[in-house]
Structures are given as structure tokens and as C-alpha cells.
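Record pair follows.
FIRST:
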Amino acid sequence: MFKCHICNSTESHIEYVNETFEINDKSYFVEKIPATVCSNCGKEIFSNKVSEAIRSTLNNQSDSSNQEQAEKQYGFGSLKGKIWMSNDFDAPLEELAEYM
């Protein structure tokens, strides 16, 4: 049974709402989110399932955005000259000679 934690009303209805979420200083506008809305004060409450779906979607969106930003900042060749490999890197190891 519904009970609003703001005004203690037990009257509610289901409504599709729009909401803006802030993640890492970026705004994401999500439309048509199913919510239980308090008929008295208008407080919107999302179910656990809906909240998790929004969180998952926006975090994936944010992660891919961060990856694109990292690729732009640290593109191919950005570490050139900073990593080296020994000339005998792929030479057989003496410790493993008995297995060869």
C-alpha cells in the first residue's frame, strides 16, 4: 500500500514522467518514466526495477562517453617512446630449458 513519505497521503496514481539526472557534471534527460505519484503533493516515486534500469542505462551511457573522451585524449601512438621492450624479450628462458 502506498504512503507518501513527504505528506503521509495514501492517495496515488501512476503517471509517466520526465526527469533530468546529473552524472559526472553531465545532464541526461529521460522521458516517459513510469512512476507512482502522490495525488496530494506530487512526489514522484520510482519502483526498484525502474530505478535500476535507469541507473544501468545512464551508467553505461556515461561509461561509453568516458571511453570516447579517453580515446580522444589518449589516442593511438600517445605512449610512443614511453614504453620499451628488451631486445631478447622473446628469447627462451634458461629456467625453462628442460621443458623444451
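SECOND:
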Amino acid sequence: MCKSCGSTTNYYAKGVCIQCYNAEYWLEHPRPKQIITYCVYDADTLVYVGRTDDWLQRKKEHRSATQWWSDTFLVISMDHPTYGDSLVAEAILIRDNQPRYNAAGVTR
């Protein structure tokens, strides 16, 4: 189990998962661009959590590459002061909510 977030997948040699290991490095570094973490809902259920520095491009990718995108109703985004903050936010949201369409970081 990750010492940082409690995840039981994606271990790294130092006892933390790769997402938390990367986040620790980036916590002190300023973000390269505006990074957002976004939550996608269908009706009232969180179905996907993601992170991007180019929302318009990412939205196009979801639209063309996923069957579920057309069934979504609401997207909520959060801006973060550092890249590390965005990694931590994404990892915690995925761990705590287990969104249906996230593959990484989800244990079922």
C-alpha cells in the first residue's frame, strides 16, 4: 500500500505509488502551463477524472476516442498552483471515487 495516498496499485521502490512519487518531485516546481484536474459526470455519477494542460485538445480527444463522452452532462475543473498539486488531486479523486472509465489507479 502506498504510504502517501493508500493506493494498492502501481508501487514504486520507495513504498509510494508512482503517482505520489512523481507528485513529490513536482510539488516544489512551478507548473509548466495551466494544469487543470477535471471531473466528468453522467447525470449525478462521477465517471472520469483527468488532468490536462490543454482542455480544448483533451475534450476533442475524448469526443473522438471514447464512446461514453456523448453521455456526459457536466464537467467540473480545478486549477492548481503546481504540477504536483494536480497529480495529487487526480490520484486522490480516482482513489476515493473509483470512476467507471478511469483505468489507471482504479482498483475494482
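COMMENT: The beta strands are 36-42, 45-52, 74-79.
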